[in-house]
Amino acid sequence: MTKKETKQISVYDTTLRDGSQAEGISFSCQDKLAIAVKLDELGVDYIEGGFPLSNPKDQEFFDEIKKISLKTSKIAAFGSTRKANTTAENDVGLKALLSTNTPVVTIVGKSWDFHVTDVLHTTLEENIKMVESSIKYLKSMDREVIFDAEHFFDGYKHNPAFAIDVITAAQNAGASTIVLCDTNGGCLPMEIGEITKTAKKNISITLGIHTHNDSDSAVANTLIAVGYGVKHIQGTINGIGERCGNADLCSIIPNITLKAGYNCIAKAELKKITEVSRFVYEAANTMPRTNQPFVGKSAFTHKGGLHAHAVKKNQETYEHIAPETVGNERRILISELSGGASILARAEKHSLSNDRKLMKLILKQVQDMENDGYQFESAEGSFALLVKKAAGEHKTFFNLEEFRVMVEKDNRGELSSEAIVKINVKNNIEFTVGEGDGPIHALDSALRKALKDYYPSLADIRLVDYKVRVINPKGGTAAKVRVVIESCDKNDSWGTVGVSENIIDASWQALVDCIEYKLLKDCKCS
């Protein structure tokens, strides 16, 4: 299909405006510019940059985005219709929209009579005039105008005639697209479908949909609206947004493109959607949702041995699409639920042959270690080392002689940590001291200091995450703990695990695995 065919659906991304209204999220101007570039590479049709009247940062974005050459996306500025009892030409909000010089402006207007009378405190007739005059004025200034009919579905349920009058007025005034909004996010798919069907009978121009997720139906509501003739979809990357969020474009785009047969995002670009999802999480400084459909780390992950065995034979047995079509990957988890197929699938990644005896040995070790509290689901690095050791292919890079960790607190309440490490490296004894913000930081510092002259590539390692889990809480202060460390270098990320009654010892195990995995990886690459 080509962009010109009738089944084309345009994508309007509002991550930078509606998404930034999510609790705990604040994008810098540089964040917004970087996300806009990623969205353009993905191939969305519209990028809503923000509300220029709301804050200086949004105005800065509109100034800076002009300096960037976008290939596919149009930048839209967001605002509202003129205020009651004034003129469009003199309205401050409309002037701010025009000052951005964006090719597209999106204005929101009331389509629920309750909001007109109780929030705007004006008449239904004046509201219609506000919609008409605002659109006409913006059109006269040579802008493409998208009209968001706020609360359209709730408005239709309370006063269908008025809701239809609002969108009809917007169409007659010259809007290019009318967007039906489920602003409160409380409607269900069957309601969205029927009301969209009625709206479609009254609108001859492009009809759009904008849904929120307060009933956990935003994606379903968007998809059913597309089925009833909507050709313009609005949403955010990862579904971020106010309250419970917006419709998640990371689910909507693949569903429309791969399953509904519409031309939405080119399949070549669709492979970038997982990368875009994770980029936005990083910019928002929030943890990715692992079970997020299509793009989540667990979306194509198999834990049970039966599943892994079936997927190895044919991925369609337990996967609805091929993960690579959305830029994701298949993962086979190792746990006490694993069978030989799971072990084989993971072992193949480490270049081991189909050795049934070896697979049974590895499986037995995994089951025994998990019984002791280890967990390899998030510890690919530790599992890789386990496989190498079982196969007799492990290389020892250093051996511990001893370590000591000290934590001091003075009478001013200030804490300091110091670690002493004595290791044998290539038949040389290295004795080093490291300081850190805490005991684990100090231990890591001392170990790296001892190894840096022998293995310079260790300077590339960066700690991404550190997690501690009490395994048997009934043991009280003597309970075992599991420490999982996630690390990365310039090209890869990996997890390692340690278990002990002593948190320092568990951390040491995970640190050693982290370094050994990095060195083994570098040996393989060299």
Question: Any descriptors?
Answer:
single chain, 526 residues, alpha/beta, TIM Barrel, H-NS DNA Binding Protein, Double Stranded RNA Binding Domain, 4 domains, disordered N terminus
Strand order of the largest sheet: 1-2-3-4-5-6-7-8
Count the beta strands.
16
Radius of gyration: 29 Å
Shape by Cα distribution? elongated
Distance between the termini: 44 Å
Low-confidence stretches: 1-6
Number of helices, counting only DSSP H or I runs of 4 residues or more: 18
Total tally of structural domains: 4
User: Could you give a short account of the major beta sheet?
Assistant: 8 strands, parallel, barrel
Structural class: alpha/beta
- Output the CATH class name of the largest domain: Alpha Beta
Strand content: 15-25%
CATH topology call of the largest domain: TIM Barrel
Helical content class: 40-55%
Query: What is the average per-residue confidence, as pLDDT, rounded to a whole number?
Result: 89
Going by CATH, the architecture of the largest domain would be Alpha-Beta Barrel
For CATH, the homologous superfamily of the largest domain is named as Aldolase class I
Task: Please give the structural blueprint.
Elements: E1 10-13, H1 29-42, E2 46-50, H2 56-65, E3 74-80, H3 92-99, E4 104-110, H4 113-120, H5 124-140, E5 144-150, H6 152-158, H7 160-173, E6 177-182, H8 189-202, E7 206-211, H9 218-227, E8 232-235, H10 249-259, H11 267-270, H12 273-284, E9 301-302, H13 305-313, E10 331-332, H14 340-349, H15 356-371, H16 380-390, E11 399-409, E12 415-425, E13 428-436, H17 439-451, E14 462-470, E15 481-488, E16 493-500, H18 503-525
Parallel strand pairs: 1-2, 1-8, 2-3, 3-4, 4-5, 5-6, 6-7, 7-8, 9-10
Antiparallel strand pairs: 11-12, 12-13, 14-15, 15-16
Helix pairs in contact: 1-2, 1-12, 5-7, 6-7, 8-9, 13-14, 14-15, 16-18, 17-18
